[in-house]
Design a protein that fits this description.
Elements: E1 8-13, E2 20-24, H1 29-40, H2 66-71
Antiparallel strand pairs: 1-2
Length: 73
Amino acid sequence: AVTLMPEVLECYSVTGPYDYQLRIVAADLAAFAQFMMHRLMRLPGVRSVESSVVLQEIKRTTELPLEQLQRGA
């Protein structure tokens, strides 16, 4: 179901106390609340959700450190 939601940019099955981690985008906090309450929380099997809001982006890259990985550093 989340694969069809344009707000969901990424979805990962993770270890630990949670089953999934999603990265979503919303225009503002009102849109975020609307998405959470009226779409995400209504999915079958979703019992609870914890969220964090990014305040500031410190570093973002898609580049892989291939040289370091090859050296084992």
